[in-house]
Design brief:
Elements: E1 29-33, H1 38-49, E2 53-58, H2 61-71, E3 76-79, H3 80-86, E4 89-92, H4 99-105, E5 114-117, E6 122-125, E7 128-131, H5 139-146, E8 151-154, H6 161-165, E9 174-180, H7 183-194, E10 199-203, H8 210-227
Parallel strand pairs: 1-2, 1-4, 2-3, 4-5, 5-8, 9-10
Antiparallel strand pairs: 6-7, 8-9
Helix pairs in contact: 4-5
Length: 238
């Protein structure tokens, strides 16, 4: 007569991951396409000031090199293609009008790269700023469609270029909503945002939700004009 096997104790449950436990990104090289524009230049300055290695890109290498010299903090300038090749993480910060052309022209250089789209599709008329809706749904989704072999995320939409570039501003108290399909990629972007004093990177959903995040900038422009401010976004209860 055989005896029944003794019941095995249940395996201990794995503790849920702390959402604020983010990776160390200090060794990553960040490229900023459109780094000679106000938003790109401001992001490059803040990340470099925080100790990140930054390369800014432009259609003309000379313009990028000049802007990099003005920013300082060991920022380098290069043509867009070289910037994309050398960077581990590439931020697209070009004007909306040049967004599709820039992404499409760099498909090979951006293959396998983590791409962060911070472009806001906006129109302007006598009533002020208003949101545009690309055929793909958002600028980030357009980038994902044009860069099928890249890991596209969306972030850094709601930051004031004035505050980013002002050396007298020590901290920028704001949250950065990060969207993407792969949580690990989003966490890298969240960690980059958190390197800038005062900022938090917050996961805010998948790319299908990027349109309303991009569109909110039209509202912020109205807020800033009415109150003569540089308003950002702060999420409560997290």
């Amino acid at each position: 007569m055989t005896s029944a096997a003794a019941p095995q104790p249940d395996a201990p449950k794995k503790a849920p991951k702390d959402p604020w436990d983010l990776p160390d990104v200090s060794g990553l090289v960040v490229g900023v396409l459109g780094g000679t524009g106000d938003q790109g230049r401001g992001l490059a300055y803040r990340l470099a000031r925080a100790g990140q290695k930054v390369i800014i890109g432009s259609r003309a290498a000379e313009r990028a090199e000049q802007a990099a010299a003005e920013i300082g903090h060991r920022v380098e300038g290069a043509a867009n293609a070289e910037c994309a090749r050398r960077a581990d993480v590439v931020i697209i910060a070009v004007p909306w009008e040049g967004h599709a052309k820039t992404a499409e022209s760099l498909r090979e250089e951006l293959r396998g790269k983590l791409v962060v789209d911070c472009v806001n599709p906006l129109g302007f008329d006598k009533k002020g700023a208003y949101a545009l809706k690309p055929e793909e749904g958002s600028a980030a989704e357009q980038a994902a469609a044009l860069l099928p072999e890249s890991r596209v995320t969306a972030a850094f939409h709601h930051l004031s270029a004035v505050l980013l570039s002002d050396p007298e501003v020590e901290e920028i108290e704001t949250d950065v909503m990060v969207l993407g399909e792969v949580r690990a990629d989003c966490e890298i972007v969240q960690a980059l945002a958190a390197r800038i004093p005062g900022m938090r990177g917050v996961f805010a959903g998948r790319l299908r939700n990027a349109h309303q995040v991009e569109s909110l900038v039209a509202n912020l422009i109205s807020v800033n004009r009415r109150y003569k401010a540089h308003a950002g976004v702060r999420l409560t209860d997290i």
